[in-house]
């Protein structure tokens, strides 16, 4: 999924996501379904660019914690931070992706 997002784009990566996936942003906003994921990436129109780079993948309680870096760039600035993403997986599809500031929060999302 991460490789497809980065190299082939959102529409190809959606094949890894359940049609009703929950996509939780780092501010707590939850976007639903493939359209919600497309809505998120549509916010980055060329003037603003989004990039995420995974560093580690750790299986936890029927899901995966991905530790990585996320960056939002404009011509004038760059906002970058280390982020943890919890991925709930069911029957081979990601049913929920959520961004967290630390590993404990991501783990609680998967085990809670």
Short description:
The protein has 112 residues and is an alpha+beta fold. It is 27% helix and 49% strand.
Oligomeric grouping of the chains: single chain
According to CATH, the fold-level topology is Nuclear Transport Factor 2, Chain: A
What CATH architecture would you give? Roll
Helical fraction equals 25-40%
Query: What portion of the residues fall into strands of 2 or more residues?
Result: over 45%
Can you describe this structure?
- It is a single chain.
- The protein has 112 residues and is an alpha+beta fold.
- It has a single domain, classed as Nuclear Transport Factor 2, Chain: A.
- The protein is built from four helices and six strands, in the order ααββαββββα.
- Strands 2-1-6-5-4-3 form a six-stranded mixed sheet.
- It is globular, with a radius of gyration of 13 Å.
Which keywords apply here?
single chain, alpha+beta
Write the layout of secondary structure elements.
Layout: H1 2-8, H2 10-13, E1 17-24, E2 30-32, H3 33-42, E3 49-60, E4 63-73, E5 78-90, E6 93-100, H4 103-111
Parallel strand pairs: 1-6
Antiparallel strand pairs: 1-2, 3-4, 4-5, 5-6
């Amino acid at each position: 999924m991460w490789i497809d997002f980065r190299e082939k784009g959102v529409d190809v990566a959606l094949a890894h996501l359940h049609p009703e996936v929950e996509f939780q942003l780092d501010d707590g906003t939850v976007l639903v379904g493939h359209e919600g994921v497309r809505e998120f990436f549509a916010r980055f129109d060329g003037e603003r660019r989004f990039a995420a780079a995974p560093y580690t993948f750790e299986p936890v309680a029927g899901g995966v914690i991905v530790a990585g870096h996320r960056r939002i760039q404009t011509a004038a600035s760059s906002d970058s931070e280390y982020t943890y993403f919890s991925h709930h997986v069911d029957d081979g599809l990601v049913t929920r992706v959520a961004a967290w500031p630390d590993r404990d929060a991501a783990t609680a999302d998967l085990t809670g």
